[in-house]
Amino acid sequence: MSSESLTLISATPSPFARMNRIALRLKDIPFELQNEIPWESQTQTPKYNPLEKLPILIFPKNDPRPPVYESAHIQTYIVEKYADRGPRLIPADLDGSLLAKQIVVLGVGCMDAMVLMRWEARRDQAQQSPKWVERQSRKVDGALRAFSEYAEAAEKEGRGFVVGSELSVADIAVICAIGFIDFGDVRPGWREKYAVLARYFDRLDAREEFEETRPVMFNLTEKVV
């Protein structure tokens, strides 16, 4: 594999790319962050991902590997392709590994629901679907309940992490999803409702790799919906 830096194409507020940025930093894998707005006409996203979505992990010109896309798959790629570098970020046992990946799916699904709610709110009022928003909102509430159950089980068992005894992609996904909830003020009062989850979130989100990757809003210059 090339020793040159990788490139992660992202959007500044993206909780999806934040997961990958944290994993790359924890494993001390050199990479450059290239920010884009994938919905605007000048985007280069379709060049690397036929689904026209971010994030995308790309390799140096002399590296024959094709681009890797979809945040959950990028996480799997990072932990498996760079297993010998830095912390594992995935439990060594099969059941733990599968559970961690399931929690990543849960985190990504929660993020997706929030993004869909945001886009619906950008439509003209007459075109918005309250039932659609309600459906996405239920996904966020369901994810929060599940995150809380994982955090409570970990605390009860004396563990600092939701799967196993070490930080994993599962923790990264949970923190990034909840961080996006906070970023958009999607669920005011969630801390009071889920006190154990709040303690877990604050402890991990204070780590350097998490603090340095918190989302930053961008300005859309073209109408998308």
Automatic annotation (TrEMBL):
Domain GST C-terminal, residue spans: 93-225
CDD domains noted in UniProt: GST_C_6
GST N-terminal domain segment(s): 4-86
The keyword Transferase is assigned to this record: yes
Xref: InterPro entries: Glutathione-S-Trfase_C-like (IPR010987), Glutathione-S-Trfase_C_sf (IPR036282), Glutathione_S-Trfase (IPR040079), Glutathione_S-Trfase_N (IPR004045), Thioredoxin-like_sf (IPR036249)
Top-rank taxon, per record: Eukaryota
Gene Ontology MF, one: transferase activity
Keywords linked to the UniProt accession: Transferase
One Pfam short name: GST_C_2
Family in the record: Belongs to the GST superfamily.
Name the UniProt record assigns to this protein: Glutathione S-transferase domain-containing protein
